[in-house]
Design goal:
single chain; 25 strands; 2 domains; 8-stranded antiparallel sheet; 396 residues; 40% strand; alpha+beta
Length: 396
């Protein structure tokens, strides 16, 4: 009986040992299968991220902004468009009502300023252009998109080739959201400041090609709240820009930069927790063959800061796929995204001494141009900085 009990215990031990070995073997196979599947899952997630980013790039189309800052003298005109000649020195009116009643007595005018123009093409090849002009207007009067008698304010552009006008747009009527009061002039408390924006579509691409145009110029007519419909209009067309030259001068433009923070939903989920989003150059993967007149930039220099800390800007740190090709402080391409690239943004905790980062980030960028020697750039010029944009960033 003792022998039998011992044998049973021995058999039980062997069975238990065998089952343990079998369990370990199955576990090892499963672990191995998981390890083999992980790179494929990561690659799939990266491909989904890139596809979502390229969709955003296609929606941005070919777009750039021209910071012009051109001052233009303005003049008063009556309701029939006739210039009102001011007799400075005889009377000096300073109140809005007095100026409405006698614009000849207005004590003086500040020039308005064409701040810049955004140019967007309907296609990435030779499609028509849409131009959006942005102005700052200085005036003693309140301005209206529609006058007290129902007349509509408008902007327009014309294309010149030498001394000849070869194309003029229809009036681009201004709506209330396009005309925004931004405050009184800090140098003269009687002068009101406005931001004006208007858009002119369907500008033919031929005028952006060599020999067809020497300038694209800008004008506006905006009504005041005077009962007699006194209005103001730029005295001369703002000189604008030379279309062919500007398309061949990357450092005079601010080209589009596409930034896609991860949201954690669907294709916007990071392949690695150490990443927070993606960013694309002007023409990633050569999705959009450039028009013959468009000289694309070498790349974009991108800086970022944390909004809540009001910290200083510093160059953006990025990776290629698989956390390769890290561009940090020791890289010759630190902060650069070349025009053909789509890259992954490193989690932004490096901005705040390694602490977790779930905040709003502030980005700005500018064009860079030059040549490449292997992987090392030689930068010959840098453009103006873009306006800052704020984007929410999650901590994964």
């Amino acid at each position: 009986m003792k022998f039998k009990a011992t044998t049973q215990r021995t058999i039980s031990v062997y069975v238990s040992f065998f089952l343990l070995l079998l369990l370990c073997a199955v576990s090892m196979i499963n672990c191995k299968r998981d390890r083999l599947a992980e790179p494929a899952a990561i690659k799939k997630r990266e491909d989904e991220n890139i596809a979502a980013l390229l969709k955003m790039v296609s929606e941005n189309k070919k777009s750039y902004y021209l910071p012009l800052n051109q001052e233009v003298e303005i003049m008063w005109v009556d309701k029939n468009g006739n210039k009102i000649i001011r007799n400075i020195g005889t009377t000096t009116e300073s109140t809005a009502q007095a100026i409405c009643d006698d614009p000849n007595g207005f004590k003086g005018e500040n020039p308005s300023r064409l701040d810049g123009v955004r140019n967007t093409q309907a296609t990435c090849g030779n499609g028509a252009h849409t131009l959006e002009a942005e102005w700052t207007i200085y005036t003693p009067l309140e301005l209206l998109a529609t006058s007290v008698k129902g007349s509509k304010s408008y902007g327009k552009i014309r294309v010149r080739n030498g001394s000849s006008t070869v194309w003029t747009s229809p009036n681009a009527f201004i709506t209330t959201p396009d005309l925004v009061f931004i405050g009184m002039d800090p140098t003269d408390a009687t002068i009101r400041m406005y931001k004006l924006k208007y858009t002119v579509p369907n500008v033919p691409h031929m005028y952006f090609q060599s020999g067809n145009a020497t300038s694209v110029q800008f004008d506006f007519k905006v009504f005041s709240d005077c009962d007699n419909e006194a209005s103001e209009v730029s005295a001369n067309w703002a000189p604008g820009f030379a279309p062919y030259s500007i398309e061949n001068a990357p450092c005079q433009r601010i080209d589009v930069c596409t930034i896609m923070p991860y949201t954690g939903n669907g294709s916007s989920t990071p392949p690695y927790n150490s990443l927070c989003g993606m960013i694309a150059g002007t023409d990633p993967y050569y999705q959009c063959p450039a028009a013959p007149t468009f000289y694309i930039n070498l790349g974009t220099e991108v800086w970022v800061r944390r909004n809540s800390l009001n910290a200083n800007f510093q160059p953006l740190e990025t990776y290629a796929s698989g956390l390769s090709d890290y561009r940090g402080p020791s890289s010759s391409s630190y902060g650069y995204i070349y025009n053909w690239e789509a890259r992954f943004m490193k989690e932004l905790n490096y901005i705040n001494s390694g602490s977790p980062f779930a905040d709003t980030a502030v980005f700005k960028w500018r064009n860079i141009h030059g040549t490449m020697n292997g992987n090392t750039p030689t930068i010959t010029c840098r453009g103006a900085w873009s306006n800052e944009i704020k984007l929410p960033i999650k901590d994964f």
